[in-house]
Amino acid sequence: MLILVVVALGAGAVAYAVHRLQGPSLLRASGIPSVVATRLADLMQLSPVPARPAPSFTLRDQRGRTFSLSSFRGRSVVLEFMDPHCTDICPLVSEEFVDAFKDLGPRATQTAFVAVNVNAFHASSADMATFSREHGLDTIPDWHFFTGRVEALRRVWSAYGIYVYAPNPNADIIHTSIVYFIDPQGRERFIAEPIADHRHDGTAYLPASQLSSWGQGIALVAGQLS
Hints:
Number of domains: 1
Structural class: alpha/beta
CATH class: Alpha Beta
Strand content: 15-25%
Largest sheet: 6 strands, mixed
Strand order of the largest sheet: 2-11-10-5-6-7
CATH architecture: 3-Layer(aba) Sandwich
Distance between the termini: 33 Å
Order of helices and strands: EHEEEEHEHEHEEEEEEH
Helix content: 25-40%
CATH topology: Glutaredoxin
Shape: globular
C-alpha cells in the first residue's frame, strides 16, 4: 500500500505547520503539550488544531458492534484511517498504537484507539478483525476498527479531509495518513503525521527507537487530553 500524507483544510483538519531547522536547534509550534519534547513533536510532526467538534459518524467495528463517535465522550480518542490489507505504513502505526496503550498504563482506560477503514473493496467486519488480530491491536481493550457501507465511509473520509484512491481491488490503496487526537469533549485538538522509511526491496520499516518514540508520544498527548 502507498501512503499520501496531506494536511487537509476543512471541517476535520486545519493544521498549523511545524517548521523545522537543520541541526540541534528546532522551532517549536505553540500549543504543543509541555510533556512532549520538541524533538518528539518534530518526529511526529505534531500540530495543534482549533478545538472544534470532531465530525460525527456511526459505523460498526471489527466485532460487528455499532458505535457513534459520541460513544467515546469522557475519554480521549486517538483516530487514524487504515487499510486492512495494508503492508506499508498501517502495520507500523498499529505497532505504535499497541506501544502507546502499554505506555499509558493505568490511564489507558481513559483513551479509545480508533481507526476507520479506507479500503472499499475489503469492508467487512471480518476484514477489520483479521487485521486487528494479525497486528496485535486486539490486545487493546478499547480498540475499534470501524467500517460500513462505502457511501458512509466516503462521508467520513470527506469530513476528515482524507484522500483515498483505489482504482481496483488489486491496486495499491493511496490515502492520507493522519492521526487525530480528540479530547473527552469530542473536540479535535492535535494531529500528527505518521512516517515510514523503505528498504531497497520496498518494504516499509522504522527503526525500533522511532517506533518506541512514536508510541510514547501518542501516549503523552492522549494522556494529557484525558
